[in-house]
Structures are given as structure tokens and as C-alpha cells.
């Protein structure tokens, strides 16, 4: 598995003791305040949560074998093949003239790069061609690669572990984006970096969501906090309280999928965020939005809406193995540059990997 987490020294948090175990001292400066009108939720326990580990024990996952890395890159390239073909064929035997720029503009727009990013790239490319006196089509293609890498590199950011105890992650996204599956994959990644995990089934809106998350919990051997029905914010609060009592490293909270136009449901997400702040002063530490890579410019609209509502800290782009065009990352970088932590190209655990701008552009413009 790829090593993609960057660690900072952990700040030790005082242990918070669950009611059913013997009392332990709690530091007076960080009391756990109960949330009014929130009743405890029964935990659906699939396995015992591992005790918190010392900082010295948290070591990077082994570097991927060359064949594993090659397999990942080949799957990424295959997922972006349609866009890659439409872009790269433009430069075969092409003359550097207005016709080439017009065709490139159309190709970028078709690839979901959006108007703003497309015009930015074209203007920068024309300037680069003139300043560097480029005369060959392959030189222009190489210049476009450089510009794309420069545009996307600010989105490349590692997810930091060990900074908070526990680290509270809120996961959002519309139905069908692969949110719950992504949570399961991320939980496995966390475990490979020696992090104990608790999952919270905060998607009480979709009937099968709780069961789906429980399956991932059982598969990964982690606890899932759930309620048969009730307030998703209460589930989130109880999950954080449980993680603090058990000294768990990471809490990941699933939320109900919804469209940004469903304003009353977006308000529910804001409530969950507020309640997490009551459960732990600094929470949530990460607010991730899971996006289906096939949704094109609609993905950009989702980023804007969820960022306005929740102040996103990162994105996960899924399903880049299908008909995804890939250009939406350029649109996001230019319009709403929220970091892209991970991209996914399939259903397997290893198919979710950290975003790397160089690798992505290489797959797009090989």
C-alpha cells in the first residue's frame, strides 16, 4: 500500500472514561460536556477497538512493490483513456496555429475542465509558446503538461494523522458517489498506519446505509456506532464520546447523501458539524466530500455548495475507472481549490490512492 500520510507529533489527550468502566482522572481543562437532549446510542460492535498506540509505533506503510505501482498507474490511465485520446491526438502532426488552439479549447471543455480553467490554460499556453519559441507540436504538448501539473499540484495534500486524539472526520456526499464504500476503504488505510478506528452510522436517511457500514466495520474489525432511528447528530456525538473513552485514534462519521439543492437536509449536515464541536472542542478536524468522477461540472457545483455549508478540508474523487473525463479537477483547482486527498479507480481497497498531480497528468497526457 502506498505511504501517503504525513505525521505530526501527537498531542496527548486526557482519557475520558465511559460510564461502564472504573473512573479515571480527567484533566479539568478539557471536560466532556453532555449534549442536551441527546440520549446514548447502542453501539453495534463488530470487534473490539484496538487501544491507542504510542507515537513511536505509528510507522509508514511499506512502499508499494513496483508491480503494484504499475498496476495502479495502468488502471488510472485506463480510466482516463477517453480524455487522454481526445487530447493527445490533437498534437499528432499538428501545426501550431489558431486551429490547434480552437481544437484544444473544445477538447478541454468536453473533458469537463470548465470555461475558467480552459481559458486560463489556453492563455498560459499561448504565452509559453511565444516566450519559449516553441515550433513543434510535441513541445506544445509538453508545455501543456507542465501547465496542468502546476495548476493541479496545489490540490495535492497529505492527510495528517496523530495531530488530534481522536481525529474526527465527517464524510459527506450525494447518494451514489460511493461515500460509504470510501469510508470502509479509508478505515482500512488507517489501520495499515496503525490507527484504531470507530465508524459512526450517521446516515439514518437511507435504509441500507447502516447495514452497509456495519458490513465494512465487520470486514475491517472495527466498532460501528449506530441507532435504529433518530437524530444523526446524536449518533455523531456518541461516536466521539466512545472514541475518547476508548482512546481510539480516528472517528469517521458517515452522513446522509443529499443534493446541495435540498436545503433542509444541508441544514442537518450543519447541525452535525455543530454537535461535533460540542463533543470535542476542535472537532471536526477533517470534513471530506466524496465526489463521483463521472458527474462532470456537477461535481464542481457540489464542491461549492458543500464547502459553503461545511468548510471542506478535502475531497475524495471516486469512480475514475469508468467514463470519467478527469478535467473537473482542473475546474476545481481554478475555481474552488479544495485539496484532493484521494482518487479511486475501482472497488478494491488498493484502488483508492492519494492524489498525485504528476501521475494524474501523465495518465491524461501520456
From TrEMBL:
SMART domains linked to this entry: AAA, SRP54, SRP54_N
Location within or outside the cell: Cell membrane; Cytoplasm
Which reaction equations make up its catalytic activity? GTP + H2O = GDP + phosphate + H(+)
GO CC term, one of those recorded: plasma membrane
Binding-site positions, GTP:
173-180, 254-258, 318-321
**EC number, UniProt record:** 3.6.5.4
Q: Which SUPFAM superfamilies match?
A: Domain of the SRP/SRP receptor G-proteins, P-loop containing nucleoside triphosphate hydrolases
Any one GO MF annotation of this record: signal recognition particle binding
PROSITE patterns found in the cross-reference section? SRP54
Q: Which domain of life is it from?
A: Bacteria
Q: Which GO biological-process labels does this protein carry?
A: SRP-dependent cotranslational protein targeting to membrane
Query: What membrane topology does the annotation report for this chain?
Result: Peripheral membrane protein
Do the record's keywords include Hydrolase?
yes
Q: Where is the segment annotated Disordered?
A: 20-41
Q: Which residues form the SRP54-type proteins GTP-binding domain?
A: 339-352
Q: Is Membrane one of the keywords?
A: yes
Q: Where is the composition biased (Pro residues)?
A: 25-39
Q: Which key words tag this protein in UniProt?
A: Cell membrane, Cytoplasm, GTP-binding, Hydrolase, Membrane, Nucleotide-binding, Receptor
Question: What family is this?
Answer: Belongs to the GTP-binding SRP family. FtsY subfamily.
Note the subunit structure. Answer: Part of the signal recognition particle protein translocation system, which is composed of SRP and FtsY. SRP is a ribonucleoprotein composed of Ffh and a 4.5S RNA molecule.
What role does this protein play? Answer: Involved in targeting and insertion of nascent membrane proteins into the cytoplasmic membrane. Acts as a receptor for the complex formed by the signal recognition particle (SRP) and the ribosome-nascent chain (RNC). Interaction with SRP-RNC leads to the transfer of the RNC complex to the Sec translocase for insertion into the membrane, the hydrolysis of GTP by both Ffh and FtsY, and the dissociation of the SRP-FtsY complex into the individual components.
HAMAP family registered for this protein in UniProt = FtsY
UniProt name for this protein: Signal recognition particle receptor FtsY
The record's gene field reads ftsY
